[in-house]
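Appendix B. One record, verbatim.
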Amino acid sequence: MKGRVGGAAALAAWWLYTLNAMVLALGVSWGFYSLCDYGYSFWYPTLDIEEHIQEYGPQNRYRRDFERLEAEQYQALFHQIRNAVHNNGEGLEDIHYPNRLEQPVPLLREAEILHLRDVAHLIRMGTVITLIAACLWWPLALWVRCQHRPPAGSRLIALAAPLLGLAGWLLVAGPEAVFYQFHIWLFPPEHEWFFYWQDSLMSTLMKAPVLFGGIALVLSVGVAILTPVIYFTGLRLAGRGSPASA
């Protein structure tokens, strides 16, 4: 009985430590990638965002002349949005672009501003979660150090089960449906979060949700690279020994 309890405790310690390392890796990847505007200057030509703007900018029901801007201006607008959502949503109302008469036109409608403030709230929550993960990194590494190493098969099942569940959901429902479902869970139901390209210069500028797929890909690579670094570094600092013993 004690052996089973000890084995369960060891597996729980390992699983929580691994999960914490992944959360910390995601937070670090997100933070660094945000510093370069989530690679918008790269995704702009790669995802043909200029062609997308040229097609849907003239169709917008609320704004005019958005398609007349230069690539540098579109990138500057995205940069302003990025700065605002990382600053509690401050300054979203002040983002403008010039029309053909060089008059300033507000980029965002009220519904878009409200949505981006919700995004800013999620980013604040993500920052807090990342800080909590950083604080738990050392104690969890010490906890793992005090346990016997769980069998490889148990560790594989504990780690693979949730990942396979997510992969199965993506395969069955499709990435777009999963993306929308997370929006339903994360954003207040009374706030609009789905915007047609013909109604939203924000969505047109980002070619949403296509741009988010590229961002998710980069973050996934960051997590894949940083998770083992964080994992083994924590165990070494905790005196666990070589990675082979973890």
